[in-house]
Automatic annotation (TrEMBL):
PROSITE patterns: PPM_1 (PS01032), PPM_2 (PS51746). Its EC number is 3.1.3.16. Residues 48-364 form the PPM-type phosphatase domain. It holds the Pfam family PP2C. Keywords: Hydrolase, Magnesium, Manganese, Metal-binding, Protein phosphatase. It catalyses: O-phospho-L-threonyl-[protein] + H2O = L-threonyl-[protein] + phosphate; O-phospho-L-seryl-[protein] + H2O = L-seryl-[protein] + phosphate. GO terms for cellular component: membrane. This is protein-serine/threonine phosphatase. It comes from the Eukaryota. One of its GO terms (molecular function) is protein serine/threonine phosphatase activity.
Length: 389
């Protein structure tokens, strides 16, 4: 069945497929992915539970997104479970926090998991992932404190952090910020693949987030401010949870020499932003076809169902790159320009048309999902910031 949203993309699907054919091995043939101008991509690969595809397009002068895919052992214990880890780290005010998370978060998950590993308890858990987030946050704040005198701007750098872990037939989703993961699930009755959003977002544009902030800071009438028609925490930042942003976590960093736009008029006692993620744990079923992990730059231009329809109706090779291109087509259309003209715009200026966009798509093979003892390929890929430094 061809849905309404899919028809929207059908007119230019041929162009993308032709590009994909001529470049079919560009990302897939390189173990660590490829860099091509403002693009980084790994068109296809195999993780423990199926196939995957990754892509990043840069818009900022310095790419602030970072991402990673780890597939294989989820701990350093030889008899530990196998799994797949996905991380999307959408940085802001600089790339330092997203790169730091890319280097430390998965290592912290393995370390904390090892500490709790016993012959009776070999599973991944929400507590392990939460502890890893908080450990990574603590490490980053410690780095800010150590570098404060020589590199004070690092106190204003932060990153959203979206993580997915598949282990022993279970899916764990953790999120701090406004990146998003959407599941494509087959509805057998209607013979359609439907979009199911799995992540909880923390953006002040959402009424529920504003209410949460107001309940956490009942004595601060300025905790969320509508500024230039956009809701912002303290009139500064849209996300309410992140790793980093020390200037809104510790009052000691909210002072000169950081830029005036980051400074608050009054000191604060408790953190304004939180690093603790919202976590979902659920079983995976044969109807679950694929997962789309992406920074908010993708979701600014495509709805959940549009993204799912596109992935479901497009050949897999290079699908992440093609999905990003679909979003760029929409970005160009909003500005009443041709996509071919948008492609000519260089980094920096391009941020006026779209954000950095990172996408990782995991296809799910139900035969492999529940086999925690399956020794599949060991994969470790960093996309985005680390690929370009």
């Amino acid at each position: 069945m061809v849905t309404t949203t899919w028809k929207k993309f059908a007119c230019w699907r041929t162009t993308l497929e032709d590009e994909g054919e001529s470049c079919s091995n560009r990302g897939g043939g390189d173990v660590n992915g490829r860099v091509d101008g403002l693009w980084w991509y790994k068109d296809t690969g195999q993780h423990v539970h199926g196939e995957f595809s990754m892509a990043v397009i840069q818009a900022n002068s310095i790419l602030e997104d970072c991402s990673q895919l780890e597939s294989g052992p989820m701990s350093s214990v030889e008899s530990g479970p196998q799994g797949t880890f996905v991380g999307i780290y959408d940085g802001h005010a600089g790339p330092e926090a997203s790169r730091f998370i890319g280097n430390r978060l998965f290592e912290n998950i393995k370390t904390i998991h090892d500490a709790e590993f016993t012959s009776d308890n070999q599973e991944m858990s929400a507590d392990v992932i939460k502890s890893a987030y908080l450990a990574t946050e603590e490490e980053f704040i410690s780095m800010v404190r150590n570098q404060w005198e020589i590199k004070p701007h690092i106190a204003s750098v932060g990153s959203c952090c979206l993580v997915g872990v598949i282990c022993s037939g279970l899916l764990y989703i953790a999120n701090a910020g406004d990146s998003r993961v959407v599941l494509g699930r087959l509805d057998k009755a209607e013979k359609e693949v439907k979009a199911v959003q799995l992540s909880t977002e923390h953006n002040a544009s959402l009424e529920s987030v504003r209410e949460e902030l107001q309940s956490l800071h009942p004595d601060d009438p300025q905790i969320v401010v509508l500024k230039h028609k956009v809701w912002r925490v303290k009139g500064i930042i849209q996300v309410s949870r992140s790793i980093g942003d020390a200037y809104l976590k510790k009052s000691e960093f909210n002072r000169a020499p950081i830029l005036p736009k980051f400074r608050l008029p009054e000191p604060f006692e408790k953190p304004i932003l939180l690093a603790e993620p919202s976590i979902l744990v659920q079983k995976l079923y044969p109807e679950d076809q694929f997962l789309i992990f992406a920074s908010d730059g993708l979701w600014e231009h495509l709805t959940n169902q549009e993204a799912v329809d596109f992935v479901n109706n497009t050949p897999r090779n290079g699908i992440a790159r093609k999905l990003v291109e679909a979003a760029l087509q929409e970005a160009a259309k909003k500005r009443e320009m041709r996509y071919s003209d948008l492609k000519k715009i260089d980094r920096g200026v391009r941020r006026h048309f779209h954000d950095d966009i990172t996408v990782i798509i995991l296809f799910l093979d139900c035969r492999l999902i529940s086999r925690s003892s399956f020794r599949g390929p060991i994969i470790s890929i960093k996309g985005g910031s680390d690929a370009n430094t």
